[in-house]
Amino acid sequence: MTEYRHSRTTAAVLRSLVPVICPPEAHALAGAIVEHMALTLGASPLAVRAGFAAGLATYDLGALPRHGRRARHLSPAAAERYFAAWEHGPTPLHVQLARAINQLMSLSCYEQPAMMERVGYRPGPWIDQVRRKRLTVFADDVRRQEAQILAPDPLRPGVRLRSAARGAKGTVA
Amino acid sequence: MAVARPAVHEGARPPGVFTRHDLHGDAVLDADVVVVGSGAGGATIAAELAEAGLEVIVLEEGSYYQTRDFTADTSAMVRQLYRDGGATIAVGAPPVMYQEGRAVGGSTVINGGMSWRTPDKVLARWEREAGIAGIARELEPCFERVERRIHVAPMDEAAIGTDNWLLKQGADAKGWSVIGNLRNQSHCAGSNRCAFGCPTGAKQSALVSYVPRALHYGARVYADVRVERVTRHGKRATGVIGTVAGSGHRIAVRARLVIAACGAIHTPALLARSGFRSPSGRIGHNLSMHPNVKVVAIFDESVANWKGAHQAFQVREFQDQGLVFAAVGMPPSILAMSFPHRGAALGRLMDRYDNMLLAGMLCEDTATGRVRTIDGRPQAFYQLAEADAASLQRGVALLSELLFAAGARRILLPFHGAADLQSPDDARRLLDRPIAARGWEVVTVHMMGTAAMGRDRSRAVTDGFGFVHDADRLMVADASLFPTPIGVNPMETIMALATRSAGYVIDHARRLLS
Hints:
The structure holds 2 protein chains of 2 kinds. Chain A has helices at residues 8-21, 30-42, 46-62, 64-67, 76-87, 92-109, 113-118, 123-137, 139-150, and one strand at 170-172. Chain A is mainly alpha-helical. Chain A folds into 2 domains: 8-118, no CATH class; 122-151, no CATH class. Chain A starts with 7 loop residues before the first helix and ends with a strand. Chain B has helices at 40-51, 74-81, 120-130, 135-149, 162-174, 210-216, 263-273, 332-338, 343-350, 386-405, 424-429, 491-507, 509-513; strands at 17-18, 27-36, 56-59, 88-90, 96-98, 152-154, 178-180, 182-184, 220-222, 225-233, 236-244, 250-260, 292-298, 313-315, 323-327, 356-363, 370-374, 377-381, 410-412, 442-444, 474-476. In chain B, strand 2, helix 1 (40-51) and strand 3 (56-59) form a beta-alpha-beta unit. In chain B, helix 1 (40-51) runs parallel beside helix 6 (210-216) and helix 4 packs across helix 12 (491-507). The interface between A and B is large, with 75 and 92 residues.
């Protein structure tokens, strides 16, 4: 994983897409959603990141011929129509980019604590509850399994090899 | 009531595990055996050989995490535990998104923990077609041993969530075969976080089973080390060279036996990067993927799919046709990204998250793809066969019927532009019009077959124990070995094959390691 930050163009285009892709209740979270997308992209291969950035730049400029302004500056209604045109449109590359933007932004949208809370997803307390239960109700079995993992049980009874490498564990330059 | 002490994998980092923080310069290490990869194959064979008294070094590209590191932060877990943040794609129409674990413990850290033996018919086929005589008989004790080690057992009923009970209810209503899933777990409590690192330690992944065992018997595990190539002298493998993440320091391991266990995508790339050629010309070929699709059913009642054990049941009615169904809980972010909806429509849909049941289907594929090595990096290519697309379509129709029988009100489908299903009749009508392979949204976590074993060196990459044909002291121990797809979750097969191979190495140690 490498440190990744959106370029100014990428961040601006993504921010302008939040009202197009995210539900209204998430619009106030635009900054956090776009930042979260940077984390996701940072874990992606370089080629994916580069392709995504190039695609967004093309998307931004592609609005000029029809709308006379960049995508990031379109009115809400025009932005909606323009994105829909890419979703259905003219080449598989348009479709793929629109789909990728939708996927990444939807992921980041529902990773926001307020959105998780909204849909009733509260994994932290649930994990704590079931972890506690496992370690209390099943304490003996848990211990037994841990002991079993380390207990001697040679694959070939009676056969133990003498390591040729023992005594020569290596050097650090 | 007594509380169990911290598990063996918790607390301080155990002796024998080294990470990039410990590696401050270039290093040259010696071992009897070096294992590349610490997942189902690598950890298993490392533990068996270490217990036999061999000096074993395991190199793992991913980092070392412990159970306490696995949190409820889904996307952070994906970034840490999945290769390329999960954005790995096999090129084809449709592209197939696949996931690999990249951490100590490999993909066992992020899988669902399904533990099934290789079906008899598959082993019979391997005997017949790949010429691996006696493999079914030889694997029997290996399965028993693996199941004991990773604690394969059915789920505690109390840990099973509503989504899985609904799946079973639907199968029962249809009169279809449904079985309790066997999983490698010790009192799984149903956190439903299998895919993001088990936060309770219940899933007996390699991280908490074979890796601690290997360490206990003296193996050393180096995390954060990406192996670039196998070193060789002629056709004899002599060790490996890798790079430490972050620092770029070099690690060379000199060993008498090299075992590649990097999974079916990266093992063929490692062999290719290292200049090994198979007389069969089949390194990287024969890629099977068990293409997987999902449907989302919406119920009136609360489903809370994120509570309860992952895939507690499997519907096996159509296993002979290569189809297995299961319920798979997922966090809202992962579900949201899988929907084509956006804006207010996405919001309205996601407001029903609590009522959603996500069901998946595994398809035993007939097509094979290929892993090519481009500039040293693997790239998978896989074209979903029209016949497999037809199987998936039939499976989606059947699964939808089951979900309606369980009380679903609406079902969302895994292909572009499809209208939601509102009734069982809609489900049956799904079969009226074929859906082309390119229209599907396909994912997988089962990659297999790219260094397939077989007796005939003109057709197979390795022999029946995983030794690379026409190379010396070089083995493969992962799902690359599968001559064919197996139609069930592959982890136990990988572990059993690794156990069998370890037995062979021990039995022939004088010859192999002299």
